[in-house]
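Minutes, project check-in

Agenda point 3 was the complex the collaborators sent over. CS summarized: two entities, 541 residues total, and the question is how they sit relative to each other. Sequences were read into the notes so everyone works from the same version.
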Amino acid sequence: MIKQLLTATAFFVVATAQAEPHGNCVTNELDDRLITADLAVAVGNCYLARASEESQAVAALEYAHSWFLQAQALGSSQARRGLDLVEKKLAQAGQAHD
Amino acid sequence: MTKSIVTSMLLATMAVTANLALAEAFTPLGAEAGANADGSIPAWTGGFSRGVIWSDIGKQFVDPFADDPVKFSIDARNLETYRDNLTPGQIEQLRRNPDGYRLNVYETRRTARYPEYVYAAAQKNAGTARLAEGGNGVLDYQGYYPFIHPKSGVEVLWNHFMRYRGGSLLRTHTQVITQPNGSFSEVQLEDRAAWPENLSGFDPVSDANIMIFSTQKVTAPARLAGNILLVQETIDQVKEPRLAWLYNAGQRRVRRAPQVAYDGPGTAADGLRTSDNYDMYTGSPDRYDWKLEGKQEIYIPYNNYRLTSRELTSAKLIEKGHLNPNYLRYEKHRVWKVVGTLKPGTRHIYAKRVFYVDEDTWQIALAEHYDSRGVLWRFSEGFHVQYDYADTPWYAGEAIYDFSNGRYLVFGLTYNSAQPITFGFKASKSEFVPAALRAQGIR
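CS then shared the predicted structure for the full assembly.
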């Protein structure tokens, strides 16, 4: 029951983050045991949306990368697409600043 | 029978001789006591003290080594000459700032000095302390410095986490966020921390897994002022995660703050540092595999008394891409090199981290943080000072440079403070509980 409640809360947090792509995305608020593949993808997408803000683009992309990587470890089929996109954007950001 | 007694006596004598040799070879905290091969790092002779106390220091903490001349400077043009004694982060910072940035190197002064009871605890720990399961905590230790003769990277990190900082501390300090063009903004903070030895109400049984009690209050600018972070820093954070609460002045509410850990954003830092970038590295080491790569002799920030001067201002200190080198002091010291690689299945924005830990203080002097592509992303410097009025070293500031965007952040600067950092006061556990946050709120 408690686990179900926590999972529901986790989804609410993610849904809020998705609704506000420029607001705060999840970092370490959730117990590791509650993080599912879909949830990790959702948080990764939240950071991807934040990456449009130039001054913090790399940080947002690194957060996105870390979440997509976790989603991949959890068996997500969508994670690879997210990782490819982030890696491409990171490479572009790297070239711009070298 | 006689032969057996003689053998026992001989073995006992050898053990005593070995212990004496060990005591001479190492400082009470396990650093190599002797000089290095070419004498550029001198022997440790007990550390530095002017024999003064906090009330003698008054409002100005004077640089005792102000007359030391610069021995030489390292910049982008001559760094190859000194490459063996520099870290990749330093080299990158020099390479990116070919004009105006340099490391001014001074005579090495091994100023580290501590109260006798700290030495005694460390010596005792050397025979008893052990890592908890997975290296996520420490068992059978007392006080500070559990592993003065470390055998692994994570043991070195525990010495940094569990190092002595006066037993309690109070500082008001400035955090400066700097843009690529050199413009900057300031945030004023007040940090208060207490270790169990100075905390009334600390329960050795129910609080056994808590190492430090601390608060961090934002006092300016007005839009952020009044927010307070409370942290009860647990030792084994896998068994019991760090306990953190945030008082939001706007909402006048206290909320749990589990995001204040690992790569959660640092307080009012505009995304330039993670929670675990505080104090060079803080929190739990459990997300990385740590490797001890031995010792190196490198130029690290040391005895940076000039950073504590009340005559200093952000306008004088902050330059485009780097701090004004005239206010910084570097010395050659021996450091432990510890490399952390993110464990498979765990998450953090830094895929790899490298820490350089001063042998005399167990304080991280330099840190490098790598991104997911293996590229050096951020580089941190901890500007050491021996606060001799409290017989404790700590930082006079910490900087973190973001190589991806040219921004940097420096915090822990006390030049705007009315008084030097206070150490060693008594506090009550009741000051470090959620209910106390509302009372401390200024609005």
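Noted in discussion: Chain A touches chain B at residues 26-30, 54-59, 62-63, 65-67, 69-70, 73, 87, 90-91, 93-94, 97 (CB under 8 Å).
Follow-up: revisit at the next meeting once the mutant set is ready.
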